[in-house]
Amino acid sequence: MATEQSKNTHWHKRAPAGGGGGIVYFLGLIGALVYYLQVADSFWTVIAGILKALVWPAFLVYELLKSLGA
């Protein structure tokens, strides 16, 4: 009869393959925060800048599709 440890040897943790998108989003978030906070001139533009920095990929895709004429 197999021991408990030998039965669970195939259940090991693996690192996710191709998980590089998170670092791209993080660097974009930092860059967007820096940009939007530099041009902010009031409390509400700071708040708007933080919110815009969180959703910067949506702005990127929108502008890309607009420039392609889609």
Q: Specify the overall morphology.
A: flat
User: Biggest sheet: strands, sense, closure?
Assistant: none
The end-to-end distance, rounded to whole angstroms, is 64 Å
β-strand percent reads: under 5%
Task: Work out the helicity level.
Answer: 55-70%
The whole-number mean of residue pLDDT values reads 82
Give your account of this protein's structure.
The protein is an all-alpha fold and 70 residues long. It is built from four helices and no strands. It has helices at residues 4-7, 21-39, 43-54, 56-68. The longest helix has 19 residues, at 21-39.
List keywords for this structure.
70 residues; mainly alpha; 4 helices; 69% helix; 0% strand; flat
Summarize the structure.
The chain has a domain at 41-70.
Secondary structure topology:
Blueprint (H helix, E strand, L loop, with lengths): L3 H4 L13 H19 L3 H12 L1 H13 L2
